[in-house]
Amino acid sequence: MKALVVYDSAYGNTQSVAEAIAGSLEGLQASSVPVGDFKPETLSAGDLLVVGSPINGWRPTPKITALLSALGNGALTGVKAAAFDTRVRMFIHGDAAKKITHALKAGGADIIAEPMPFYVRGSEGPLRSGEIEKAEGWARTLLTSLTS
């Protein structure tokens, strides 16, 4: 079983979270992959796909949205999946991770975790203190979900 953490990143914050998640998926052949380098045909039933995006205009980035559109109509049947986003802590901020989760489910994926937000300071970051550790902990939760 392999795990692919596919992400888009404007300022490196989402990439840092993706790398922390991939690095914490112990026991799996895990890697973080920029959305432009992702090849959907490398996924097999039973694999884990984690998709992450910064919030861009209240939703995932256009590149992530295009990828999710291409993965519709059952292309993810048998694949386990989860989603995250990076965002600024505000009263109203959008929810890219929830939109990604809905798209993954529409593509046939089995969602194994609630969407997860990770917070940045200001619009460009850096990540808030403790967010990398939070990403590592979330990755361990994903591993537990795979085995239960």
Explain what the structure shows.
- With 148 residues, the chain is an alpha/beta fold.
- Helices cover 32% and strands 24% of the residues.
- It has a single domain (2-141), classed as Flavodoxin domain (Rossmann fold, 3-Layer(aba) Sandwich), CATH 3.40.50.
- Strands 1, 2, 3, 4, 5 and 6 form a six-stranded parallel sheet that branches.
- Helix 1 packs across helix 4 (131-147).
- It is globular.
Calculate the mean pLDDT score and round it.
94
List the secondary-structure elements in sequence, H or E. EHEEHEHEEH
| Residues in helix, % | 25-40%
Percent range for β-strand residues: 15-25%
**Looking at this structure, what is the CATH superfamily?**
Flavodoxin domain
Distance between termini? 15 Å
Oligomer: single chain
Structural class: alpha/beta
**Gyration radius, rounded:** 14 Å
CATH architectural name:
3-Layer(aba) Sandwich
Number of helices: 4
Q: Which fold name corresponds to the CATH topology?
A: Rossmann fold
Output the CATH class name.
Alpha Beta
Query: Residue ranges: pLDDT <50 for 5 or more in a row?
Result: none
Largest sheet: 6 strands, parallel
Total E-strand runs: 6
In summary, what is this structure?
By secondary structure, the chain is an alpha/beta fold.
